[in-house]
Structures are given as structure tokens and as C-alpha cells.
Amino acid sequence: MISLLLMCVFGLLLRGDAQDRASLWRGNDQSGRCQYTFTVPSPVESNCPQTGGHEMEGLKARLGMLEVLVSRLTGGQTGGPQAVGARAQSELQEALNRAMGERNLLQGEKERLERELGGLQHRMAEMRREMEKLRNRPCPPQTPIVSPNPSVQNSGPARPAGGSSQMSHLTSRPNRQGDSSSLRDSAWQYRHPGFQELKAEVTEVPAPDRSEDNTGCGELISVGEPFIHKKADNIAGKYGVWMQDPEAISAYGPSMVWRIDTVGSDVRQLYGYEDMEQLSKGFPSKVLLLPEMVESTGATMYRGSLYYQRRRSRTLIRYDLSTESIASRRDLPHAGFHGQYPYSWGGYTDIDLSVDQQGLWAVYSTSKAKGAIVISQLDPNTLEVKKSWETNIRKSAVANSFIVCGKMYTVASYSAPSTVINYMYDTATSQGKTISIPFRNKYHYNSMIDYNLAQRKLFAWDNFHIVSYDLRLGRKQAI
């Protein structure tokens, strides 16, 4: 095929080179057959001076074109399989270079954010030290409330200073800057001891209502309307968890409020606020970066440690706030995790930790319980299970739960504005019962409800809103 092509091309070259001097003759031979004669100049004629040397150059150019064509047909020029592979490799290398460039940009952005976080933590530490200085500054001396001693008689009841009421002397305070004599009430000094008679008005005080006990442990009677403390500023605060340590033993005081925004796949930031007022203003005094990612809204605070579930696992973690490190970790036996047995609102709420008067608790479920709620009391130091109770209510059938005085309560709906607390399980008697206590989801997406022992309220996170509820507990029954 190639040789035939070469002959055709060579013939075209000859015809193109001598087309102005070639001649074609046609005629019959002696036998009567048609005969064609094609005539071209001889080599001697092609070298004649009148034709010039450009004809040979043209022939060389056409031969060069012929070589290029042959080379292409045999795969030696660009455009063959090797060229396709080379172009693909070049495009892949270019894509790799672009990806590396984007990675470097993202790495630089990450480092910038980490530097900004470090600067924020440094500024918060300075603000905290300044606040401690202000707190430790001594108060200015106060002027004593009680006037100098009036003259008193040798016998009979003592009288207060003239012009004052009969009971005004009882409200006086010792002089902080004075000597020991100021510790005695000036209106009650006398020369020799004796019985004193005090005449005062009597005010009736109503007897306490024995049907309730707001300071002790009893059965839940009612829940008040939600009180809003703070609304989140961005989508990261749609749901989360906030808490206080009821037995703070770390460097942070009992008024410290902690918050975690749990939207996202890399939840690590723990924000600390000096008190409720600073929380409402949105000014954290401490920002901690947790070493392990947080799963959902089931975290709690107790005795100087943060307790939470590690992401995508049944592992519980105790994070010590004073050392800013993990103090202990342990798997919760057979507990479902990452969407196996969540509350009805979802959010990977498989393990819910809480604290009440009796200690640290975990609410979860297992395959053995077939999705029913399991309650376990945990050792706060080792995270070992001390005792467990299995209920007969499915975890996915309720929106949330909380524990008060060893009793677990469940909420029927997370989105209905007016719902009820529909079930109570008492770990003291291992008995559960159906109840109906009105409860309000004011903002229609309540993703976290926990009892806060420090304030004896319910803390909740309702659709970007950090809220609390007052509680009313019944009188504790005698055992």
C-alpha cells in the first residue's frame, strides 16, 4: 500500500514539475489498437539554463512533504498513540499542580485561623487576670451605721439611740476597721449583766407549703415558661449544648457557663463565660480546643471535668479543665452510636450524659434492649457503669430526656410549641409511669434539654436560642 502511494505521489510530483512542457499523443497502431504516448523533457533538457534551478528546489520540497506524510503514516510524528498519552500526562500534571496550589492556600488559611484563635485566647486570659485584680481590690472603709453610745441607766432595759425605732439597733454591723470594742452593739452596752426585755412588733409569716420543695428532691410537678439568655449569631448555633458545673473544683468559679456549638463534622471548641450576663453578651473569657471531636448534644459538666461522647464511637471522655487534657476514657458497653438509637429529632443523640443530686448518668440504648431506653449511673472518675436500668419506652419515640433526683423524664415532641413531659422512670423503685406535664418548645426545634443542678433549672437549646425553665418539685416523701 505504501509503495503504491509513493508511486502515485511521485507521478504527481513529475506532472506538477513539467506540466507546462509535457505532451500527450494518441493514435492507432498498425493493428488498429489505440495507443497513448506521454512525453516529458529529458534530463539534458531539464538542465538547460533557460529553465533555472527553482524547479529542482520545488522537487526537493515535494520530496520533503512526501517524507513527512510517510512518517505520519508510520506513527513517528505527533498525533499517534504516544502523543495522546503525552498530552494526557501533561493535563494530569497540570491538574495536580492546581490541586497542590489550592491545598497550600487552604493550609495557609488554617494557620491564619489558628493564629487568630491563639490571639483570642491570649486576650481572654489578660481580661481574666484584670478581672481577678479588680475582684481582689479591697473595698473602701465604710462609715459605721450606729451613732456613738448614748448614756444608759444602771438598771432597767437598754434603749436605742434617740429618734430611732425599737429594732434599728439589731441591723447594725461591726466596724471592719475598728477595734474589738466595736464588735459590741453600742445600743446594748451595760454596766452589769442582767435580764433584758425587748419589746417589738410581731409580723406573721405564712407557713411553707408542704406540698412542694424547690430546694430538695421530689417528683416534678410543673415546668415554667422558657426564659431566653442568648440567640446564636450564625448557622453553627442552630443546636448545641450549654451547662454549668454544680461542684466546680477547677480554676474556674461556680458561676462559669460553658457552651459547645455542635453543628458540623469537626466539633472541638468549648467556650467559657464568666457568668450568665457575659453569656448573654456573647463575650467568652476562655476558648478551649478539645483533643477529640464531640458527638451531638449529650455533654455535661461535673467536678471540674467535661464529660462527652467521642465522635463516631461509644467512647466516653472525661476532659479535665484544670490540666486541659483527657483524664479518662471508656467505652459504654454495647451502647448504640452515630444514629443507631437517637432521640426523635435525630442529631446522632445516641448517648445523653447528665448530672443531678445523685451524680453522673448516661441515657442510651443497646441492641439487647432493642431500642428501649437504658439508664446507667457512672463512676465520675473511671466512667465505669455502677448500675443500669432498662425501661419499656423506646428512645426514638421521645424527643429528649433529663434526670432530676434519680428520676428520668421524657419529652414527647421537640417541635410542637405546646407538648408534654409524658413519662417518668424512678431508679429508686425501678418503676416507670405515664405522666402529663405541660412543656413549651417556644422556637419549634428543641435539640437539648438537661437538668442544671447548679441553678436547679432546666437548660435547653431551642432553634438557635439558649433558654432555661424554672421547675417545681413535689415534697420529698419519707422513706
Short summary:
Helix 1 runs antiparallel to helix 3. Helix content is 21%, strand content 29%.
Please report which band the strand proportion falls in: under 5%, 5-15%, 15-25%, 25-35%, 35-45% or over 45%.
25-35%
Average pLDDT: 79
Number of helices: 5
Helix content: 10-25%
Distance from N terminus to C terminus (CA atoms, Å) equals 111 Å
Report what the structure shows.
- This protein is 21% helix and 29% strand.
- Helix 1 packs antiparallel against helix 3.
- The protein is built from five helices and 23 strands.
- About 16% of the residues have low confidence.
- Strand 13 and strand 14 form a beta hairpin.
- With 479 residues, the chain is an alpha+beta fold.
- Strands 3, 4, 21, 22 and 23 form a five-stranded antiparallel beta sheet that branches.
Write the layout of secondary structure elements.
Blueprint: H1 2-17, E1 23-28, E2 34-39, H2 43-46, H3 54-73, H4 81-136, E3 220-223, E4 227-231, E5 240-244, E6 257-261, E7 269-273, H5 276-281, E8 286-289, E9 300-302, E10 305-309, E11 315-320, E12 325-331, E13 352-356, E14 359-364, E15 372-378, E16 385-394, E17 400-404, E18 407-411, E19 418-426, E20 431-440, E21 446-452, E22 457-462, E23 465-473
Antiparallel strand pairs: 1-2, 3-23, 4-23, 5-6, 6-7, 7-8, 9-10, 10-11, 11-12, 13-14, 14-15, 15-16, 17-18, 18-19, 19-20, 21-22, 22-23
